[in-house]
Amino acid sequence: MPTTPDPLLPGRLTAPEPGWVTRSDVVVIGSGIAGLTAALRIDAELRARADDDGATVMVVTKDVLNAGSTQWAQGGIAAALGPGDTPEQHERDTLVAGAGACDLEAVRVLVNEGPAAVRELIALGTRFDHHDGVLSLTREGGHHRDRIAHAGGDATGAEIQRALIAAVEAAPSIEVIQHALALDLLRDADGGVAGVTLHVIGEGQRDGVGAVHCRAVVLASGGIGQVFSASTNPAVSTGDGMALALRAGARLRDLEFVQFHPTVMYLGADSSGQQPLISEAVRGEGAVLVDFDGGRFMQGQHELADLAPRDVVAKAITRRMHEQDRPHMWLDGRHLGAPADAPLDATTLEQRTAFWERRFPTILSTCRSHGVDPVVDLIPVAPAEHYASGGVVTDLWGRTDIPGLYATGEAACSGVHGANRLASNSLLEGLVFSRRIAQVLPGELRSWGAPLPDVRVPGIVRADVRPGLQAAMTGRVGVLRNEAGLRQALTELATMVDEVAPEVGVAAWETTNLLQVSLALAGAALARAETRGSHWREDHPERDDVACAGHHDTTLADRRLRREFRPSPATDTVGTADLVSTEGAAL
Questions:
Q1: Could you say which of 247, 283, 310, 436 is catalytic?
Q2: How far is CA 344 from the centre of its chain?
Q3: Of 164, 407, 448, 584, which sits most exposed with the smallest number of CB within 10 A?
Q4: Residue 70 has what DSSP assignment?
Q5: pLDDT tens digits, one per residue of 381-416
Q6: Angle 345-348-351 (CA atoms, 0-180°, nearest 5)?
Q7: Which domain holds residue 346?
Q8: 575 has a pLDDT exceeding 60
Q9: What is the DSSP string of 405-444?
Q10: The domain that contains 538 carries what CATH number?
Q11: Cα–Cα dist 44/39, whole Å
Q12: Residue 310 annotated in active site
């Protein structure tokens, strides 16, 4: 077997010495649902503890408070809130989607604590959609019940973000630093968290590189969307938190399980960056996928057809694209809002337009801005990178391997998503596990420790290698993978490590983070010689529960990436033996 490159990576980012220093007991990195929930709940817990009177919480966000991924969430948040639904049914759907790679206890935490967490979000001021005074619930791929709560039709994330930001701004004891990129973790003599270095733009005395000394850090920094050329993620999703944790000595797990959303609006072969998402909820309302011959190709692929789990749909679209030699497929929602057999007259068009304007106003506006009217037109769609199911390894309370470092949301690997995240479980995960961190963190706050001098070897790569990095990842580590392509990607990525940046800056720091995470991801994908969930190996098309049931953990040791396979405990696959696999066949 040919060897793969094993490059020496930076132990920390090259950066000037901190020009300013401040203090806060807890630093939360990230301002999506996971970060803001953690900040609010931790602050409340600290205020309630007499021995922590005066303790402070700081939220650090890379852009402005609402610039992360949460605001882009269209479909909603999943929880067993409807009549006849139960956490057990939600658990079953989550395990099926996770393809035998979920942590059963983590899933049970998610589904059992989820309903109360959503109700708490409502009490905070989130205005979910209601019909006749009853919470409106819809269905998305992989769910057997209507359990997706939504807001503003298809603006759920934006509404949740609005409510959380309002609550944070009303909390005088929470400090917010915007336009701040987290660089590296500071450690004390015991190896625990002692602070974090930041680069801040335009904050007066806190301008440039500085340090926040603290007793705990909560990573809620989001995902790795910009690893790929086309993604539904915003530009800020450059894997900064995962890379920071990796350099600090934490484990990253299951990075190979990257979810590609099946229905992203196709804007052309040259389109890159953040692409328009066409929510799964559109199919939940009855839209269907069709090919260039008008055929509904999801029929017979899975018992749920167009509402199959995302990995099944993404693979089916990709297969049909290859079969018809086309760059995309079509989503047909022209019949929504009126009977499918209704004559196409002014009344029918009015009914269908009213439905789209009420239920999916954001998607309708986006499609029309690109010259497509979904009331009368087919929507061109193709899979694009959407969500990282892996991340920094945590326990059921958000703790990582490093004392004082916690992780939540997409930056974390709590174990709930397994090999393929169930639709609308992401917002719920951030909500539930951030609440759990807040339950334990105040009682675990470490004594103030002096940060040790950081002796790790610094490094930084040129920002202009990013397009080549994204091309290698998209072409060889995307929806469809094989050994030759993965080895080629690793070879190409390894050469970029030596492209040293002539000067420091945000673009170079971000690119260095992307490169470290990409090398870890591609290495894990090469090691997993099977097809499971969102990981599709054309050279190993079958799922292998004998040799591959387990997790690939990646660490950085002596500046080199090291990977360890950890077989799954029996509880990882409990309850899945009699379920339907994500390939649609009985197990």
A1: 310
A2: 40
A3: 448
A4: G
A5: 999 999 999 999 999 999 999 999 999 999 999 999
A6: 150
A7: 266-384
A8: no
A9: EEE-GGGEE-SSSTTSPPTTHHHHHHHHHHHHHHHHHHHH
A10: 1.20.58.100
A11: 8
A12: yes
